[in-house]
Amino acid sequence: STIVCRRGHRVKSNLLCGTCKEEPVVLPLDPGPIIPVPEILQSVVLIGLWDPAARQIRSVGSGFVVDKKFGLIATAGHVIFNMEEGSRHYGTPYLGIEGAKVVIGVMPDKEKKNAVWRYFAQILADDVRNNVDACILRITSRMESDVDEESPGCDTPELELDASGIKEQNLNKLKLETHFELEQAVRIIGYSQGDGKEEPGSRRRIIRSPDFERGYVVRLFSANLSDDSSSSSDSESKNTFSPREEIVIRCRTIVGHSGGPCVNDDGAVVGILSRADPTDPHRCFLVPGTQLKQLLRRAKGLCSRPVYSTPRDDVPARYKSM
């Protein structure tokens, strides 16, 4: 309470009587500076699936560098795997395309507006069959020269990259963050591909300029699974995607952003874009950072094994080009 003297001065009674200590004034925490998108772009990559027979890119998505030491890239599973509902080929890597290669496009420097195709990569770890729409790729080689859209194709000569070669690439990684809050502001960054429609018989034009959308977290969805193993088995038999956990974002979904990082104000990745809400184009679902960390841990454990830029008999069959 407050006491007012005859001269109008106001004094807190607890200071006069000494009955209790004055409670400190708690000031709101300074959220700190927001990391601008241009400072993040060199960590965000363009991902394509190159079909050597057709000499064109069949599937396009986005991703980000999740580990620079081993040259690891995180992206959405459906960019590289067949995840068509009900298909008997559900879960097939490289979309079942014979001799297919994953190509990685990067922003060459901060001054450039478009990404260039620079690397080849292979699938290292995934959990598609267990309802996680994510995979980790490993860069295996570099194109002899950067390939832009006007070049004849991505079947260019390539240079193998060992551990020291990966280190020389000076990749910029983004940090994974498993903590987030409702109403937290986020940004989804990727390479928009317009409406995704193609003219029959025309060669697909790849948009190589990155962009982003703002949004905010609205909920964390977790499936109520009493038995993960039985649920996984049922899903495999039906060849359907039934995610165990997703972050729900209020944000417009853009074709081509699949696999792109959803970052907080600090530039840390809370998840990657998985899919749009079929009933609401301004709501989308993310693969959470917790699941990405599990995949990354598994991928790092495999990095002691040799990698090959072309399919080999001793590479696990699941990750060969089909």
TrEMBL record:
Keywords: Virulence. Transmembrane segments: none annotated. InterPro entries: Peptidase_S1_PA, Peptidase_S1_PA_chymotrypsin. This is Serine protease. The lineage of its organism: Eukaryota, Sar, Stramenopiles, Ochrophyta, Bacillariophyta.
